[in-house]
Amino acid sequence: MTQGSSQGLSRSGYLLLIGVIIGWGTSWPFLKIGLNEIPPWTYRGLVAPTAALFIFSVGFFLRQNMWVPKGQWKSLLTAALFNVMIWHIFSAGGIPLLGSGQAAIIAYTMPLWAVVFSMSMGSERPSLQRLLGLGLGLVGLATLTIGEFGIFTTSPMGTILMLIAAMSWGIGTAVQKRVQWQMPAMAVAGWQLLLGGLPLTIIAIIFEHDLWPTVIQTVSLKAVLATIEILVFPILFCWFAWFKIVSEVPVAVSAVSIMLVPIVGVYSGHLILDEAIGWREVSGLLLVCSALALVLLPSFKFGKTT
After folding, report:
1. pLDDT digits over 137-183, tens only?
2. How much of the chain is helix, strand and coil, in % rounded to 5?
3. N or C: which end of the chain has fewer CB within 10 A?
């Protein structure tokens, strides 16, 4: 997978970016709707491999080489472990225990953890601006989670699970950035979803198969439609769109856009699920978004270019 050196997106790239922000931002209340009625292993074990099959089908239709080059299996397995498997396991457990907007804010601290792990791997050099950003991000999390009315007090397990999910996604991102992928972006996405999703399917078959008859009889149309929406828009479309965006601009530049995702997540949770928005959500959101800006903005090059 090659990454473009341009600092700007094409017109189609901007349209895809808007789609990603809307798709990922609005996915949180729909995830909560689905996970409230469908067992978590079954939900994740169904969605991820199904998305992978769709991506492979599109890749073959477009005549892209979807096979993994020699020497890249280890990197692919590692990225799939953190980006898909661990992320899906812990987020599936955390989302039903939190407000969807709260879960979105914690989840999209991912770039902060990506920078931390990139520094520990020697891929990033710490700067005062990035250290300040990390500090702001931690303050934002503390504002949201601790205190008498913080979500850690009301849902400690949900908070811990989502933090682990965000950290896992951060590790996966740091790992993925170190790899010079020699296959199309679609193949990278499809293989990660397949390799990370199949173990969840196996676990679901082993531990939740006895729940399936009851789920089939009692699951609501709302939960089914919410799951289909997650599969089609946030996973299939947004995965393709995100890798297309990354191919046009450096990853750090494109990643700044995800600051808008938790904002959309908080307000979509309010509109769709009537979740309350208090000073903690607003303060945490502002601090986390400010932290993301400080962490990611050093990748921009300002001034005259030659």
Report:
1. 777 767 766 765 567 777 889 989 999 999 998 888 788 778 888 98
2. 80, 0, 20
3. C
Q: For tokens 């891929």, what's the residue?
A: 123
> How many CB atoms sit inside 10 A of residue 277's CB?
14
Is 26 in contact with 269 (CB distance < 8 Å)? no
Kindly report, residue by residue over 247-293, the tens digit of the pLDDT.
565 444 445 556 677 778 878 888 888 887 777 778 877 877 777 67
CA distance 97 to 267: 18
Domain ranges of the chain: 11-299
Distance CA 287, CA 135 (A): 10
The answer for residues whose C-beta is within 8 angstroms of residue 44's C-beta and 6 or more apart is 88, 89, 92, 197, 200, 204
Both tokens of 160, joined, read 């811990």
Task: Assess contact for 267 and 26: CB atoms under 8 A.
Answer: no
Give how far Cα 142 sits from Cα of 111, 159, 162, 206, Å. Answer: 17, 11, 14, 38
Helix (H) / strand (E) element for 6: namely none
On whether the pTM is more than 0.85, the answer is: no
Residues 276, 260: Cα–Cα separation, whole Å: 19
- How many Å is the Cα radius of gyration of the chain? 19
